[in-house]
Amino acid sequence: MKSLVVRIVMVTGLAGCIAPSGWAQKQNPPQEKQTPPNEVQARAQVALPDPSQPAPSNTRYAECTIEVTRETGLPNLDEVSTFVDNTAGQLAQTMVGLPREQLPQFFALKTESRGPTMQLTLTVDLPETANTRPAAREYLDRISRDLLKYLDNTRTTGIDRRIQAGRANVAEAEQRCQSTIAQVREVEKKLRDASGRVDVSPQNLMNAVTQLDEEHMRLEIEQAAKLARRTALTKALAESKKDLEQRVKEDAVVTELEKIVEAREMALKRKRELAEAGQASKEEVADAEAELAHARVGLLERRQEAAERAGADIVSSWNRELMSLSVDENEMLARLEQVSARLQKMRTLVDSLNQLEDLQRRGEDAQSVVREAEQRMREMTERLRELADQADTAIVESKSSKVSPTKEEERDK
Q1: Domain coordinates of the chain in residue numbers?
Q2: How far apart are CA 264 and CA 277, in angstroms?
Q3: For the chain, how far is it from start to end, CA to CA, in angstroms?
Q4: Is residue 108 predicted with pLDDT exceeding 90?
Q5: CATH topology of domain 202-348
Q6: How far is CA 253 from CA 193, 214, 221, in A?
Q7: With DSSP H G I counted as helix, E B as strand and the rest as coil, what are the percentages for the chain, rounded to 5?
Q8: What are 5-42's pLDDT values in tens digits?
């Protein structure tokens, strides 16, 4: 007997596309409702097919190969097998007059997967009995049609899963980015409160720490230098004063003037005693006091002259410098205390600065991840537009005959 072989390609939808959520439901009509098992059992009780059906094709053998190629992931083989078995079992009684229980005897499904491609080979081989309706071609066509709808539904489901996964990746990346930004702001607030600065960028704060450290070192050096100079001046002044006093004492004129002052003091004392005894007048006492004062003035002037000759002007300038150094030291000490306090405070923020730098790097990385995730979503959308008219499921081979090739060979023998 001759067999009929038909090769066709049936376009059912997109190939390896990613569609937005809800796109699959709009693009594909709902799957036909499958017949409940109790209804199939009721049909199984019918011995003969419906007389109103068209005449069968007089085929007891039919074979169909469906090929699925998807970038979005192949359908689950177990789920496909279950669907095909249920569909074939429900249609068996009404289309070929055989009960569901005998399905393994006349229907078979063979599956094979290679990378992104899966092949499904469906075979119908009806027995040559009186109650069997010879409509293998129609029976297999109906199963194939329902299977193509089912595969198209699984395709759109896979697309939705991919788009949902892409959106979840974007949302997760954005959440990590926002979390990192919040941590950065928290550390920046801590640094502002501690440093009293508005600009708390790591570079700015590190520059401030460096400047404070240099200022602290400079003040310490200046303070040490002024302290050393004050100490040296104090020692030099003490030695100079001692030498000056010795030179003044050794001056002959001063010695004689001291004797004159001493004599004038004794004379004044005697005049006062005589005045008390009524033997001297007040004028005489006043004259004695004037002579003593004149002698003292002369002594002081001579001492001043002797001191100047011995270097008293240098001692005086050193005294003035010593007073100035004392004022400068107090001022510098106050500045040093302020700088030391600020420097110590800034040094305690170094760990926070390192944390801020690390968080800023993590924030930049998180923003890059968000941009990459968004770019992938845009690329998937572009891919969807490009593949909108491409097929991913096709019947690559279909054939039928009055008897199976195996039985025909046996008859020929």
Answers
A1: 3-171+377-412, 202-348
A2: 20
A3: 13
A4: yes
A5: Helix Hairpins (1.10.287)
A6: 74, 59, 49
A7: 70, 10, 20
A8: 333 333 333 333 333 333 333 334 444 444 444 443 33
Across the range 1-8, mean pLDDT stands at 34
Count of other CB atoms within 10 angstroms of residue 265: 13
Measured between alpha carbons, how far is 184 from 355 in angstroms, rounded to an integer?
9
Q: E-assigned strands of 42-162? A: 61-69, 107-114, 117-125
Report the distance separating Cα 336 and Cα 338, nearest Å. Answer: 5
Percent of the chain with pLDDT over 90: 17
Residue pointed to by tokens 């700015």: 204
**pLDDT in the model for residue 251:** 62
Q: Where are the alpha helices (H) located in 348-396, listed in sequence order?
A: 350-386
Mean pLDDT score across all residues of the chain: 77
Considering only CA atoms, which of 191, 219, 193 is closest in space to residue 206?
191
Closest CA to 169 of 17, 372, 380, 359: 372
Torsion angle, CA of 234/239/243/244, rounded to 10 degrees? 0
Could you give the CA distance from residue 206 to residue 187 in angstroms, rounded to a whole number?
Answer: 15
Residues paired with residue 118 on neighbouring β-strands, in sequence order: 68, 113
Tokens of 409: 């060979």
Q: Which of 17-21, 179-183, 188-192, 269-273 has the lowest mean pLDDT?
A: 17-21
Cβ neighbours of residue 285 closer than 8 Å, sequence gap 6 or more: 268, 271, 272, 275
Q: Which residues, including other chains, have CB under 8 Å from residue 72's CB and lie 6 or more apart? A: 16, 17, 18, 155, 158, 159, 161, 162
Q: Which residues of 351-381 are buried (b: 16+ CB within 10 A; e: fewer)?
A: ebbebbeebbebbeebbebbeebeeebeebb
What are the residues whose beta carbons fall under 8 Å from the beta carbon of 173, sequence distance 6 or more?
366, 369, 370, 373
Question: Is the Cβ–Cβ distance between 337 and 220 less than 8 Å?
Answer: no
DSSP bridge partners of 394:
67
Three-state DSSP at 181 gives helix
Mean per-residue pLDDT, 235-254: 66
Q: Provide the sign of the torsion angle of the four alpha carbons 327, 331, 334, 337, taken in this order.
A: negative
**What backbone torsions phi and psi does residue 125 show, to the nearest 5 degrees?**
-135, 90
What distance in Å separates the CA atoms of residue 262 and residue 256, rounded to the nearest whole number? Answer: 10
Give residue-wise pLDDT tens across range 303-359: 676 665 555 566 667 677 778 878 888 888 888 888 888 877 777 777 777 887 888
